Every structure is written in C-alpha cells, then in structure tokens.
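$ ./design --mode recover --in tokens.txt
reading tokens...
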C-alpha cells in the first residue's frame, strides 16, 4: 500500500520529473503496484500510459489550478460553508504530521493538499497502520469520492487515479 500511496502522491502533485519517470517506467511499476491493490494498479497504469508528457503541465493547470475545475485540497470539501474553521482544521491536520516528524513547509503547500496527505500516509503506513486508518477515515474518505466525481464529470484524465484513490482509501479505512 505504501508504494501505491506514494505513486498517487506523485500523480496528484504538480507534474515534474517524478511523474515523468513513473510514466516512462509504467510497465515496471505495474507488478509492484498490483501486489498492493490490483484494481488500483490497473487504473494508475492506464493513467500513466495515457499521459502526453508534452502537455501534462497544461492539463494539470487547467484542471487543478487556473481556476480549478476540481480542488485537491481537503478543506474545500470538508469545510464548505464553514470557511471560518479552515485555520483550525489546517492546524489539526498539520498536528498529525508533526507528531510523526513530517513538517510541511508553508512555502511548499498547505497541510490539506492531497499529495502531502498521501505522502504522509505512505510514510506512516508500515509503522502505524492504526494511525493510517484513522487519518484516512477522518481526512480522506469523506471527500475523495467527490473529487473523483468532479474529475469524471470534467472528463479529466485524473479521473482514473482518483478512482484508484477511492479504492485505496476505502481499503485503508478498513484496516
């Protein structure tokens, strides 16, 4: 599960060298990912094989940034209509990271950025499955389905990894 989480973290982060490496070596990753979750692996590999690396940055920006069609920030789903609670929520999530020794620099991203949340789960999964289960239940399960629906509705290529994410989060929630 750790490698699947890390892979999804890379996929949902701004495209860079790590995504390029994943795409170029998709076949090599398939067997390893399949050992963790075969259905999620198929969706991830289909996504990686479909990428056009020459336009992936443009596509990412059009879906997630300027202005976003679909948000990859947990608080935009979990606190809709409760914007006054965002600061407290960010501190709460960041508190989980700090307890496990992961410091999210403010300059990089805010704590509810999906790739940061997935990286955190990948880091703790092997050592603390109980914390991984609780974190997935509290901070991901309530909204990743909405992200997946948004990406499907917008016919985004990220719909497949979002569906894989749903499968992984559901599995993590049942540990």
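writing sequence...
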């Amino acid at each position: 599960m750790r490698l699947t989480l890390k892979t999804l973290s890379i996929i949902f982060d701004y495209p860079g060298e790590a995504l390029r490496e994943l795409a170029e070596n998709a076949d090599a990753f398939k067997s390893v990912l399949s050992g963790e979750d075969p259905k999620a692996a198929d969706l991830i590999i289909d996504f990686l094989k479909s990428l056009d690396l020459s336009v992936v940055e443009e596509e990412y920006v059009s879906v997630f940034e300027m202005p976003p069609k679909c948000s990859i920030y947990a608080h935009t789903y979990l606190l809709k209509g409760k914007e006054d609670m965002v600061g407290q929520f960010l501190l709460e999530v960041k508190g989980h990271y700090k307890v496990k020794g992961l410091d999210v620099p403010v300059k990089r991203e805010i704590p509810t950025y999906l790739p940061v949340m997935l990286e955190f789960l990948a880091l703790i999964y092997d050592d603390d499955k109980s914390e991984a289960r609780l974190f997935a239940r509290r901070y991901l399960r309530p909204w990743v389905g909405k992200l997946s629906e948004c990406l499907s509705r917008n016919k985004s290529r990220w719909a497949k990894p979002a569906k894989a994410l749903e499968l992984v989060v559901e599995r993590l929630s049942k540990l």
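exit 0
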